[in-house]
């Protein structure tokens, strides 16, 4: 059985590819390299440089490599930027998913693991988000991910698609120094880049209704996330039932201040972050329960915050050597 990993040259996708290799499952990667890196894909893994909007290319890849299931990680993942680029966001996250599903249907591929987002919840009404919490996305990015979930639901009804969608918040760390998060928007690379360049990291607001005044969020290690993608794929391949959505959450969360303190410990660079004004719309706390995924998808928080920071720091330093 061969699995197609879309976006497999990206930060999360490349870890998913390695997790498949670790259990002896064959994979092939499609990536347009708009944010991914060719060198992130292991040399033995077939790589197709192309856009999911090219349905013919996707169909050809599926046929050539005997693909029987898909892990759909590719997408435009910047919620803040999506507000100013809604059309691009919908094209990359919705239209591209339609193209992928069309190619799958044309080749009788009926198994899909979808990389969704906890952004579908918007600002939760409760401190702990579960799969039953109301969805109310507040950005084109969150909306596009929710539409993606609807597309899968509708294809299940229409054509028997077997799928599950995995929702998560902040993905951090590295499973190997060869792979690092190069996003210009995520907290870990922003802090690490500031330290590498001799600048002072910043905190946006310290007057929230939380124990230390800074926002509390889920931070999950990318390797833990990858394991659950593979677990979902294997259950689909075995014909075992899965819920339509799972939260890959910590259940407890970490504050931005706690992340900064861990950065001091993990990097060995002593600093005091600069506190700036709040960003509009940032909730005090958003944390998801991972209980359901722990039952079905081998989900667990296997890494401490210090391990998350150290692995991210080591990967960033390796990328500069």
TrEMBL record:
Pathway: Carbohydrate metabolism; galactose metabolism
Protein name (record): UDP-glucose 4-epimerase
Reactions catalysed, as given in the entry: UDP-alpha-D-glucose = UDP-alpha-D-galactose
Organism from which the protein derives: Georgenia subflava
Family label: Belongs to the NAD(P)-dependent epimerase/dehydratase family.
UniProt key word NAD: yes
Record flagged with keyword Disulfide bond: no
PANTHER family xrefs: UDP-ARABINOSE 4-EPIMERASE 1, UDP-GLUCOSE 4-EPIMERASE
Cofactor requirements of the protein: NAD(+)
A Pfam match: Epimerase
GO terms under biological process: galactose catabolic process via UDP-galactose, Leloir pathway
Domain NAD-dependent epimerase/dehydratase: residue ranges: 3-249
EC number, as in UniProt: 5.1.3.2
Keywords, alphabetical: Carbohydrate metabolism, Isomerase, NAD
SUPFAM superfamilies reported for this sequence: NAD(P)-binding Rossmann-fold domains
EC primary class: isomerase
GO molecular function: UDP-glucose 4-epimerase activity
Gene3D superfamilies reported in the protein's UniProt record: NAD(P)-binding Rossmann-like Domain (3.40.50.720), UDP-galactose 4-epimerase, domain 1 (3.90.25.10)
């Amino acid at each position: 059985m061969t699995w197609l990993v879309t976006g497999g040259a990206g930060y999360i996708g490349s870890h998913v590819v390695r997790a498949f290799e670790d259990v002896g499952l064959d994979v092939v990667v499609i990536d347009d390299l708009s944010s991914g890196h060719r060198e992130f894909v292991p040399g033995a893994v077939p790589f197709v440089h192309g856009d999911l909007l090219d349905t013919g290319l996707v169909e050809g890849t599926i046929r050539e490599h005997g693909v029987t299931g898909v892990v759909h990680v590719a997408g435009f993942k910047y919620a803040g930027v999506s507000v100013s680029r809604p059309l691009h966001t919908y094209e990359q996250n919705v239209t591209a998913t339609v193209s992928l599903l069309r190619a799958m249907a044309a080749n009788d591929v009926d198994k899909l693991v979808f990389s969704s987002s906890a952004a579908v919840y918007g600002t939760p009404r409760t401190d702990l988000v579960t799969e039953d919490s109301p969805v109310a996305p507040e950005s084109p990015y969150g909306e596009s991910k929710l539409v993606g979930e609807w597309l899968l639901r509708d294809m299940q009804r229409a054509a028997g698609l077997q799928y599950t969608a995995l929702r998560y918040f902040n993905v951090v760390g590295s499973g190997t120094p060869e792979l690092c998060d190069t996003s210009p928007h995520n907290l870990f690379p922003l802090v690490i880049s500031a330290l590498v360049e001799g600048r002072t990291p910043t905190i946006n607001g310290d007057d929230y209704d939380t124990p230390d005044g800074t926002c509390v969020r889920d931070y999950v290690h990318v390797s833990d996330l990858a394991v659950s993608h593979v677990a979902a794929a294997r259950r689909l391949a075995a014909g075992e039932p899965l819920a339509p959505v799972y939260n890959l959450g910590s259940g407890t969360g970490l504050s931005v201040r706690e992340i900064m303190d861990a950065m001091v410990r993990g990097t060995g660079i002593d600093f005091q972050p600069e506190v700036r004004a709040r960003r509009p719309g940032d909730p005090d706390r958003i944390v998801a329960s991972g209980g359901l995924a722990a039952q079905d998808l081998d989900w667990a928080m296997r890494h401490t915050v210090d391990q998350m920071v150290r692995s991210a720091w080591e990967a960033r330093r390796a990328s500069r050597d």
